[in-house]
Amino acid sequence: MNCGIDGTTNIMNGGFACARDIFDWAAEVIQKAFRQRARVARETPAMESMSLEQGLSCLKDEFPRGSRFRVFVSGQPKALNPVIQGQIFLIAREALINALRHSEATIIEAEVEYRPRRLQIRVRDNGRGIDPKTVRLGRHGHWGLVGMRESATQVGAQFQIWSRPGSGTEVEISVSGQMLAEAYA
Predict the structure, then answer these.
(1) How far apart are CA 139 and CA 179, in angstroms?
(2) Would you say 159 and 147 are in contact if contact means Cβ atoms under 8 Å apart?
(3) DSSP class of 64
(4) Are residues 123 and 171 part of one domain?
(5) How many angstroms separate the Cα of 16 from the Cα of each of 1, 10, 12, 21, 158?
(6) Nearest CA-CA partner of 180 in 120, 97, 134
(7) Which CATH number is 73's domain given?
């Protein structure tokens, strides 16, 4: 049955099979998201005993041999609230994994910048870039970009992506103001 993206017309005309198809699809998407979140939790280093930059550095083991992956730190590192640090780490991890899987980059970098009034994390690559529509809306059936944005919002962080096809990608997570005061443990 072809319900289309919005099956409401068919549902209103008694097309309950269409509603069931939409419900089944939504349940499958949610289950996939939970399985992915559980997998990430299993594969993520225990952040309680690490700084943000140490956790990011541990991810180099996920990169193929010969990949150029570097982590830069500037400013005076500070202890972070574990909940906020965990969310920021997962966002940066997702950006790094996306770069590894999709960008065809030869260089991938993560930069952690501690400033008095702002914490910024940038992940950039020199890969093939992302289509502007995908940057805005994400990819159908994929939760990476959407999830990163939502996770940033949950901890009061700003989230931005700059990319153009053929020009690489830069993802920035930034915490400032009151949220920064709460972020520093």
Answers:
(1) 29
(2) no
(3) P
(4) yes
(5) 11, 8, 9, 9, 41
(6) 120
(7) 3.30.565.10
Are the C-beta atoms of 54 and 80 separated by less than 8 Å? no
137-167 in b/e form (b: 16+ CB < 10 A) is ebeeeebbbebbbebbeebbbebebebeeee
Convert the pLDDT of each residue in 37-90 to its tens digit.
555 555 555 666 788 899 898 888 777 776 788 999 999 988 888 888 888 999
Q: Is 31 helix (H, G, I), strand (E, B) or coil?
A: helix
Q: Can you give the residue range of the structural domain that contains 164?
A: 48-183
User: Tokens representing 103?
Assistant: 């960008």
Return the higher-pLDDT residue of 102 and 184.
102
Answer yes or no: do 71 and 14 share one domain: no
Which residues, in sequence order, are CB contacts of 149 under 8 Å at separation 6+?
159
Q: Considering its fold, how many domains does the chain have in total?
A: 2
Q: What is this structure's pTM?
A: 0.71
